[in-house]
Amino acid sequence: MESIKIRVKDINLYYGNHHALKNISIDIYDKAVTALIGPSGCGKSTFLRCLNRMNDLIPNVKIDGEIQIAGNDLSKYDVILLRKKVGMVFQKPNPFPMSIYENIAYGPKIHGIKSKSKLDDIVEKSLREAALWDEVKDRLKANALGLSGGQQQRLCIARTTAVEPEVLLMDEPTSALDPASTIKIEDMMESLKKQYTVIIVTHNMQQAGRISDFTAFFLNGELIEYDKTEKIFYKPRDKRTEDYITGRFG
């Protein structure tokens, strides 16, 4: 039986007068990949940002309801500690303008790790997890901005895992990448979920089908259906889910 990592109860989110998320309740399982799918503007990225309180930064946002991570109420967390626990990878790679090594060591240093040998170990482990070590091990001092787009995105994933989060949020992490880089990141998901709870927003139905264990379908700010991925794709209960997955709209 899967254990629940994140429990979301009756989340409503408003941007000013716009009701962007409507009564969302969902249990997200540990050590699994959960895909959030649905047409543009359906609320999936907004929902993802609730899980590390990124929406707190937006003016006029009002949120009610409850989110717990490993049984602890999200609203009670110190935000810095929360973002260590819940890492995020964005649509466009955003490496810091510093060396490959310093990109990875940055987070652990902020959280108090000073030992060079320990940082060396973290950098290697994180780059190996991101399937990037063999490509960059001879140029760790080179500027990260010199990497290709796909390498930059894997670096950003390595930078996120370097602080040992429990949850990894990914907002369309491959939408700006070529097919070869996309495959590398998809392959990586398989190994990442052994250690992390992974939640990914994707527009790509095939990607959701390939990489996720669970799929949640959002439409107009509502969670329409949520189940194991094969059920959502092959035996959806709701006609709207079926229409979206078969490409009738969206």
Describe this structure in words.
The chain has 250 residues and is an alpha/beta fold. It has a single domain (4-245), classed as 3-Layer(aba) Sandwich (Rossmann fold). It is built from ten helices and ten strands. The protein has a six-stranded mixed β-sheet with strand order 6-7-8-3-9-10, with helices on both faces. The two termini are 34 Å apart. The model has no long low-confidence stretch (mean pLDDT 95).
Key attributes of the depicted protein:
about 250 residues; alpha/beta; Rossmann fold; 10 helices
Task: Show the helix and strand layout.
Elements: E1 4-15, E2 18-29, E3 33-37, H1 44-50, E4 61-69, E5 72-73, H2 79-85, E6 86-89, H3 100-110, H4 116-129, H5 133-136, H6 149-161, E7 167-171, H7 179-192, E8 197-201, H8 205-211, E9 214-219, E10 222-228, H9 229-234, H10 239-245
Parallel strand pairs: 3-8, 3-9, 6-7, 7-8
Antiparallel strand pairs: 1-2, 1-4, 4-5, 9-10
In brief, what are we looking at here?
The protein is an alpha/beta fold and 250 residues long.
In the CATH hierarchy, the architecture is: 3-Layer(aba) Sandwich
Number of DSSP E strands: 10
Task: Please indicate the percent range of residues in DSSP E strands (runs of 2 or more).
Answer: 25-35%
State the helicity in percent bands: 25-40%
What is the chain-wise order of helices and strands? EEEHEEHEHHHHEHEHEEHH
CATH topology: Rossmann fold
CATH homologous superfamily annotation? P-loop containing nucleotide triphosphate hydrolases
Alpha carbon gyration radius: 18 Å
Mean pLDDT: 95
Count of alpha and pi helical runs: 10
* Class inferred from helices and paired strands: alpha/beta
Summed up, the domain count is 1
Strand order of the largest sheet: 6-7-8-3-9-10
Largest sheet: 6 strands, mixed
Q: Output the CATH class name.
A: Alpha Beta
What is the molecular shape? globular
List segments where confidence is low: pLDDT < 50 over at least 5 consecutive residues: none
Distance between the termini: 34 Å
